Amino acid sequence: MKPEYKNWMPKGMVLGTAAGAAGCFGLAAVCGCTKLIQNKTAKAATTGALVLTGTALGGTALWMELLYRAFSYDGKRQMSKQIIEGIAGYVKLPEGGLGLDVGCGSGALTIACAKRNPMARFIGVDRWGKEYASYNKPLCESNAKAESVSNIVFQQGDALKLGFPDESFDAVVSNYVYHNIIGHDRQEILLETLRVLKKGGIFALHDIFSEAKYGDMQAFVNKLRAMGYEKVELIDTTNGMFMSPWEAKWMALSGSALLVGKK
Fold this sequence. Notes:
CATH class of the largest domain: Alpha Beta
Order of helices and strands: HHHEHEHEEHEHHEHE
CATH topology of the largest domain: Rossmann fold
Largest sheet: 7 strands, mixed
């Protein structure tokens, strides 16, 4: 049995965009080659608009397909796997420890952390929204079974308000989750995640920590230090750690970094 971690770029989205491009070109051909639109000016404007839209959608579909190939666990690049294993490498828990993965998706990071810490336990939480309809709790549980990992559970949860008391976990992790949450202060979401971390616990949170999405992250790092955190680092992962600067640029992942440390 092989795990199925899916792809961060859903294939359906790629195919849907490509279909949209094909549809625009098809309609442009109909408009340009038939008498569907009698007025020459209107015909030219409509045909031109359809061609431009089709070209834009086609370019987007090509970009999405390249992302799909780069992220695929079965492909050559396997960036997703590299990132997951890289984050998990920061998580070392004592026997009986408890870790939390916020926004676990298909369970990849939760499982990777659990495999590295067989004497600890991990909980993966996710809202499993319609944005990623192929991700769900049964998929996570199936992947854990395929990886022969039993020190793990998955449950519904919301990063905006985690259903756990303060200082419940020895480690908290997350990967590319918070930047997807629109309309909320993302630094406050980080604080909500860190709220459930025990004193002395470790954290490894990977996301696109650009100023446009998060504001001044260096100020946030200084804030955590002022709050008494023993160690806080913001590590750029676009300098070859998880991806090259060029990959980060064309994949729209510039600003990716790991917020790591100890409470």
